[in-house]
Amino acid sequence: MARPASGKDVLATAKQALKTARTAEDLRLAQAVVLPLEYGLSMDQVAAILGISKVGPAN
Q1: Nearest alpha carbon to residue 38 among 53, 51, 49, 52
Q2: pTM value surpassing 0.90
Q3: Is 55 strand, coil or helix?
């Protein structure tokens, strides 16, 4: 069973980032936070929706 999403403390910031994103990357990052918290989606579902790996890019 998947563990529930955590991070409700950053949800408001991520929602604001959705409105102010200037690049596709910024938008995807904000969506990756909002989608699991607001809609209960798994990381696999979010990755499929956004067309990205659930691991993310290497830093």
Answers
A1: 49
A2: no
A3: coil
**CA angle 24–13–49, rounded 5-degree value:** 40
Compute how many other C-beta atoms are within 10 angstroms of the C-beta atom of residue 12: 9
Domain ranges for the chain, please list them.
Answer: 8-50
Using one digit for the tens of pLDDT, what is the confidence trace for 10-50? Answer: 999 999 999 999 999 999 999 999 999 999 999 899 999 99
Strand, coil or helix: 33 = helix
Phi–psi pair at 25, nearest 5 degrees: -60, -45
Structure tokens at 52: 């990205």
